[in-house]
Every structure is written in structure tokens, then in C-alpha cells.
Amino acid sequence: MNKVEKFLRGRFASALVAVIIGFAVAAVVLVAAGYDPIASFGALLSGAFGKPKYISNVFIKATPILLTGISVAFAFKTGLFNIGAEGQYILGTVLATVVGCSLNLPMPLQVPIVLLSGMVGGALLGAFVGWLKAKFGIHEVITSIMCNWITFYLCNFVVMSDAFHKPNSTSAVPVNPSSYTILFGMWKKSEAGKQFLAGIPWLREILLKTDLSAGFLIAVVVAVIISIVLKRTKLGYELRAVGLNRDAARFSGIAVERNIVLSMLISGAISGLAGALSITGTSPHTITLLAAMEGYGFNGMSVAFIAGCAPLGCIPASILFASLIYGGMSVQQAMGVPSDIINIMIGTIVFFTALPGIAPFFANKIQRRREAKELASSQGIERA
Amino acid sequence: MDNFILLLGITLMYSTPLVFGALGGVISERSGVTNIGIEGMMVIGAIAGAAGSYFTGNPWLGFLAAGVCGALVALLHAVASVSFAADQTISGVAINMLAPGLALFMCRQLFEGAAMTPIATKLPKILGEDGLAGTPFANLNVNVTTVIALLFTVIMWFVLYKTKWGLRVRAVGEHPAAADTLGINVYRVRYICVLVSGMLAGLGGASMTIAIISQFTQTAISGHGFIAMAAVIFGKWKPFGAYGACLLFGFTQALVILLGGGEFVIPSQILSMLPYVMTIIVLVIFVGRSVAPKADGIPYVKGSR
Questions:
Q1: How far apart are CA A15 and CA A356, in angstroms?
Q2: Which of residues 207-246 of B touch A (CB under 8 A)?
Q3: Does B56 reside within a domain?
Q4: Residue A64: pLDDT band by 50, 70, 90 thresholds?
Q5: What value of ipTM does the predicted structure carry?
Q6: Are the Cβ atoms of A354 and B90 closer than 8 angstroms?
Q7: B9: closest CA of chain A, how far (Å)
Q8: Is residue B245 part of a domain?
Q9: What confidence tens digit (pLDDT) does each residue in B49-71 have?
Q10: What is the DSSP letter of B193?
Q11: Under the phi-then-psi rule, with left for phi > 0, alpha for psi from -120 to 50, and beta for the rest, what region is B134?
Q12: Which CATH number belongs to the domain containing residue B105 in this structure?
């Protein structure tokens, strides 16, 4: 087996092939619509990575979809389709805002409490869906979709409520600054900080021009923890067993119902954390009136699937998606290409990751050619 | 009495796009192919219907175009999930990402960067534009799509339960290997069902953009496909079950509108939750465990066990 073949049978090949096809399809669409694909992709690349602040923004954009991606991936590994990450995310933002603007404790207390309240919100919503499935057998997809809309309107209700509405705006009152998870938030605006940063232009650009926060680091830690839980713990084993074969799991003494609720609870908590981190990490540090679903949960599904539902795989997948989404905005500005091309691209990528046979298909071709060659040469030897 | 008529009229109006979407879900899932992509197919139908009606001036051609375009998108899903044995959930999610992107891209290309189409000619109402006007029954002059949706429900019920072809579809959805041994071409049945599913979803999208409203906008289809999907499960994968689920959903939407205009002091956001809360409650009390077609979501690979 040569190197190319080995790679094509590996775990990353399917994702890579899908990404390449995604770009190819986008190129075809662009050409058909009369745009220059090479220049457009150039604009995409420089729009995502051209300046230090762009890179920083890519990581900021990647944070929520990395977490919702882990959330969906985790549930999927345990046999549940968490289409409700969107709602759990929204509830996370709502509770984080409510708690964050009501409390004003010292930062080391405030930040964990605000993040935890977001997690609790997501976890409760997830557990509710899991409980409905375990107790009444109601499909988690229906209840999740309903819960997405219920939290959507709940968010708007809180924004417009007398207690939390910020007058003359379409948003709620922002959380107290002690809840911020922005890196070096106080220091970077102080005189000492400004002086120090003046000597390092790229760091200055990243810190002062973007809301670089601890969010992405926290998300990476979550990815590692969830990966370990799934692979190395009894809990993870039981959860996966329920996902693979519910009846066999029950037969071997695993409490299936409890595990369904638990799985949705954990999955919901991760999405809720994503929401809380959006509030604490990025301005305007509050919830605003929603006109349509923001899509963090749905983008999380894309991230999870291109990662093959491996929590650690969600890290590169989320960066890829964030760079496409963020860079896509510059494509629109620079080339006049509708940024919707990015959704076409992401859709194509996800579509081709769904085809498990696509990379091995090429591997088989190479293998056949190699075997034919070897056969021919061995016959040659025999004849000689 | 007036309120009752109004309630009925709005119920029928709101439920129509959902019925098309849900019927699409039923036919696809009964053949064993999960279709999460209904939403995306509805969006494509929505733009195709509005654009088709705008350019030809004939809403029926728009309606037709919506069905064809919906089926074309469904072809992607069929190729992936039937021929390539792909994960159907992922393929559906991909279509939900791809289709709205494509719809908006096309819209901006066709209409100089606008995210909505100009006003298109609408499909007629059953009794013409002014039928019953002035009488208390004015609100019962429903869109012609409402009748078509009911008609399709009856046809699908008849085909699924009263014809040889329907029996085949159900067999393929329950036990494809057994169906295969009896000489049924599992792949062909599934291809046809998924294509019909896309066509119906496309019609559902158009029944929003050229019957209820008269143009495509970015939010014309926002979650209708997912609600339709829920209706499929709610209706236990049966045509009339799904139809009933959509009616219930349309009814709660109508209630929201009626109560919102009344003297009740419920904030509109809380009122808007009603359809979703009610669906969960009804599921808990009346429906409960729903059993999907046995082979739903499982790719069939000939010869495998």
C-alpha cells in the first residue's frame, strides 16, 4: 500500500476530499455567474487570514460553533440527534445575560457563575428533551425543534421585558463588566498596557481591535474533556453503548433511560456554555431582539458532521467554517459576490462528508492500478 | 361565529405549506429514507415558484417550476442516500445549508442583488378574487393550494394503502431485504419516493410564496420544513396523521393571531410560543411513542445482512 492510498483510507481524507469538492463546486457556480473564482478565493483567504485581527476574529467566530459542534457530536455518538443546539445556545445567552446584569460580584466569582448559569439553562433544556424521549418516547427531533422556537420567543420576551429592556434599543441591558471573558480586558486599555502594546503592533491590533477572549481556549478544553469522557470512562462507554444498540445495552444492565437524559443534559450544557461565552466574550455583551434563528446550532451540526462527530475533530472543522464565514464577508465587499456562495460551499462540503465511500473510492482505484501493475510485472518475471 | 370562520380560514391558510412538506416527509420516510432536507427543498420551491411566476406571468408555471426544482434538489439527497449509502441525516443537513444559499444566490443574480423577488402573480383562490366577499364566509375562500394539499393527502393515502405500488413502498421502508427477494427494485422505489418528496416540498415552498404572500423573501420559509418534519413524526408517518398534525399547528398559529388582536394582556412573544408548547403537550398527552418505519434512515446495500 503506497502513501497516497494509505492517506485516502485515513480519517482525514474524506474531510479533505469534501473540502476540495466544496471549493470546486463553488468555483463552477462562480464561473457560471460570471465571477472570477481564483480572485474570489484569494479575497476569501486574505479576508480570513490577511491581517492579525482577521485571524483573531476567525477564532472568535469559531468559538460558538466549536462548542455547538461538540454538543451535536457528543449527542450523535450516543445515538441522539440534537437538532436543538440552537435553542440551548439561545437559552444560554438569555440566562447568562439575566444573571450577568443582575449580579455584580468580583470577577473570579462572577465569570464562573455567569458561565455556569448559561450551562444550566442549556442543560435543563437538553435534559427536558431527553426526559420526554426517555419517559414518553417522543422523538427528540420534534421536541428539540419546538424548544428552539420556544426559546427564540423567550429571548425576545426577556429583551422586551420591563426588567431587562435597555431603553431606546432593540437589546437587553448588557452584563456587568466583571462578567467579561475578554483577554487582558482591563490591562489592555490601561496606560501601562497601551505602552507595552505600542511596541508589538500585531498583538496591539489583535487585542485592541478585536474582542479576543478566553472562549476558544475554554472550548478546546471542553473538546478534550468530552473526547476523554467518551473514550476512556465508564460513563462514556455506557453512553456509546446506548447509542450503538439500545436493546443490547439494556440487556447488559445499562440504565438506558437515565443515559438518554444524561446525554442530552451534557450536550445541552455544552451548547448553553457556547451561548454564555458569546455574551461574556463579545460585544454588545447582551441579547438582542431576534428576527430569525442565528444558526449557531445549525452551523454546529455542519461542524460536527465534517469532523465525523469526533470532539477533537471539531476544532479544525470549526476554524475552517469560521474562516469561510468570516472571509466570505470580504468576498462580498471585494468582488461583489453574494456571500451566500459560502453557504453553498459549506453545504457541498457537508454533503460530501456524508458520502463515506468517496475517499476510499479513489483509494480503490489506485490500489487496482497498482495491483494490475504488480500482476503484470510478476507475470513478466515468471515468463523470464 | 365570525371569529370561528376567521379561525378556520387562517388555520387552513397556515397549514397548507406544512401539509405539502409533511406529505413529502411521509413518502420519503415510508420508503426508508429520512429526509431532514425538507426545509431546504421548500426554500428552493419558494424561490422557483416566485421567480417562475414573475417571469412567465403565469403562477401555475411557477408552481410547476417549484415542484421540478424541489425534485432536482431531492435528486442530490437520493443519489447520496440511496446510491452511495450515505448518512441520510448528514446529507439532509447539508441540503438545508446548500439550498437556502443557492436560493439567495440565484435571487441576487436574477434581481440585481436584492434578497427578495418582486411581487409575483399569485395563484387564484378557489372562488376567485372576490368570491364570498362581503358575506360572513369571506375567509373561507381559501387558496387553491389548500384544496390541492388535501387532494394530495387523499391520493397519497390511496396510493400507500390501496395500491400494489404503495404496498411496495411500505415493504421497502420496513424490510428492504425481504422486498428485494420478492423482486422489488429497492433502489428504484426509494429514488422515486425521494424525488416525489422533493417535488411536494417544492410545491409547499411555492404555496407560501405565490399563494399566501406574493414574493420570495429571505424569511418566507423559516422553519416550516422542520415543523413539517415534526408533523410527520407526530402523524405517525401516515398521510392523514400528518395532515391532522399540520392542521393542529395551523390552528394554534391562528389562535395566536386571533388572541393577539383581542383584549387579552398576554405579551405577544409569550403568545407566539403557543403553537410549540401546545405541540409538546399534545404529544405527551395523546400521542406518545411513535414508531418509525423499521428501515427508516438505514441505507440499503444489496446483499448485505
A1: 10
A2: 218-219, 222-223, 226-227, 229-230, 233-234
A3: yes
A4: very high
A5: 0.88
A6: yes
A7: 24
A8: yes
A9: 999 999 999 999 999 999 999 99
A10: H
A11: left
A12: 1.10.3470
